[in-house]
Amino acid sequence: MKKFITLLLLLSINLFFSQKILIDSIQNVIKDKQATVGVGVIYHNNDTLSINNQYLYPTMSVYKFHQALAILNYLEKNKLSLNTTYFIKKEDLDPNTYSPLFKERPEGNFNISIKDLLYYSICLSDNNVSNYLFRYLVNPAQTEDYIKSLGTDEISIKRTEKEMSQNHDNQYLNWTRPLATAILFNKILNEKIFKEEYQDFLIETLIKTNTGENKIKGLLPKDLIVGHKTGNSYRDNGIKVADNDAGFVLLPNGKKYTLAIFIMNSKETDEVNASIIAKISQLIYNYYSQL
Questions:
Q1: Which residue range or ranges hold the Beta-lactamase class A catalytic domain (predicted)?
Q2: What does R_g of the chain's alpha carbons equal in angstroms?
């Protein structure tokens, strides 16, 4: 028994020091950058890591993941299928915001399934769709309340995409911490939040996301299964409020980890911001893929 306890202690000490090497490597990436960078990781539903988690980071479009969770909860409670359709009026499509849906169907006045709306919101980060879902299905306050019901208070969802575009300061009213976001992604991988149809749909949709290919996925093996949601702001006087990416990685050995990398108030270029996220993601992958 003593030998077994000694072995466990040695393994714990070894894990501690090897994780410290990872943390030091991440700190080395961010130390000279003109930005605040936060990192949260959960490995295999157990081991956690965080850096600069004490700050409140603007979510920007990462909150479309939180919104999707609230929408799926709404569908399940109301016994609505993913094929339920909604009518999009012309006035629901603002031509002055980022919206692939508007580019494809600018005249509006059509029916579209909630499944497709969530695809546009998550995979393509469509602002018009997010505004529509907040307006007609689950508003920001209800979304925040639902996320808190899942076990985290470290979230604030106060403003829609439209409201954020109207006032620079509104971007700071939607915030979270990196580890809190990693925890939410961990929940959808390891806990039963919704019935299987809804949960599988969300995971598959996150895997299809094609925004921010140069961020979390940028330096990872191309055949690795990654699901994620990006979020970034415009610049005000050269400062970017937020440049984020968060999601999960499924390792070939059957294990998995979730991660959130948030950049706040950056004076760096978009290319440097993306490289920070990509390098940190690569360090995390290299570490956990060898455990």
A1: 45-262
A2: 19
pTM of the model: 0.93
Specify if 15 maps to a domain. no
Set 25, 50, 61, 233: catalytic member: 61
72: in domain: yes
pLDDT tens-digit map of 103-150:
999 999 999 999 999 999 999 999 999 999 999 999 999 999 999 999
Domain that holds residue 40: 34-288
- When divided into structural domains, the chain yields a total of 1
Residue 263 domain flag: yes
Q: What is the CATH number of the domain that holds 283?
A: 3.40.710.10
The answer as to whether 135 is a domain residue is: yes
Residue 249 β-bridge partners: 226, 257
β-bridge mates for residue 111, sequence order: 87
Q: Is 281 a catalytic residue?
A: no
